[in-house]
Write a structure and sequence with these properties.
Distance between the termini: 46 Å
Helix content: 40-55%
Number of domains: 1
CATH class: Alpha Beta
Number of strands: 5
CATH architecture: 2-Layer Sandwich
Order of helices and strands: HEHHEHEEEHHH
Bound molecules: ligand 0O2
Largest sheet: 5 strands, mixed
Radius of gyration: 19 Å
Strand order of the largest sheet: 1-2-5-4-3
Strand content: 15-25%
Length: 211
């Protein structure tokens, strides 16, 4: 039998699936014109029920207010090669007319105390259902590969320590965040060289019929 959560989460699942296709389509379009894609890859997930309940409790969100107050039940992540690609992606999102942007949070110029960096865009996305249109909130996190590496590791450690890191781990994570920041800076400096090499590589693959 279909339970309450399956029904509640159905439009969120639909939104995540649709948005993954749409955002991956942006990459495909850049590839088609043989231009550098600001999007490296896209992932998406619906927040597990246990995490929804956990966050609702932590943030004092009544369960009948989840639709309005929990912005990341539907979550998309866009990974970029270079920090500057993030701006390009945000611009592309602002220009679209298949959703509206509700809020933007810039944790890149203002990183979180943990060392977390990412650009968050909260959107209102219309899902077409058999009962008509349903507008849901979704959060798109845009980050470089280095920011993603750090966030993924920190997230698993957070789970292990329930957010209460021993001091030495906390310090190491902050240092790792600085190292990720420097890696992004270095990559930006040799961006032109990297892109030239990547373009030459794709041309070679295409010539071999592997493109
Ligand atoms: P999950 O498992 O990723 O879904 P809050 O939870 O109060 O900090 P809020 O208001 O929901 O934040 O909005 P925010 O900060 O824009 O987005 C929260 C999400 O951003 C988190 O979701 C993470 O995905 C990511 N995030 C924010 N801060 C950190 C951090 O310090 N480290 C890591 N690894 N990720 C972070 P959830 O619900 O925490 O978890």
């Amino acid at each position: 039998m279909v339970n309450h959560w399956d029904l509640f989460l159905a439009p969120y699942k639909q939104a995540v699936e649709e948005l993954k296709v749409k955002l991956r389509g942006i990459r495909a379009q850049f590839e088609m014109i043989e231009a550098h894609s600001p999007i490296e890859f896209v992932t998406g997930r619906v927040k597990p029920v246990a995490s929804i309940l956990d966050k609702a409790q932590k943030k004092n969100i009544p369960l009948d207010r989840l639709e309005e107050e929990m912005q990341d039940i539907a979550g998309l992540r866009i990974m970029c090669q270079f920090v500057d690609d993030i701006k390009t992606v945000v611009e592309l999102l602002r220009q679209r007319n298949d959703f509206t942007i509700v809020e933007e949070r810039d944790y890149i110029t203002q990183k979180k105390e943990s060392g977390y960096r990412s650009y968050h865009v909260v959107i209102r996305y219309p899902v077409q259902t058999i009962r008509g249109e349903k507008n849901i909130l979704a959060e798109i996190q845009i980050r470089t590969l280095a920011m993603n590496f750090w966030a993924t590791i920190e997230h698993s450690l957070n789970y292990k320590y329930s957010g209460r890191f021993p001091e030495d781990i906390k310090v190491r994570l902050q240092r790792a965040a600085e190292a990720a920041y420097r890696l992004d800076e270095e990559m930006s400096k040799i961006r032109f060289e990297i892109q030239e090499a990547q373009a030459a590589f794709s041309r070679k693959q295409e010539a071999k019929g592997e493109g």
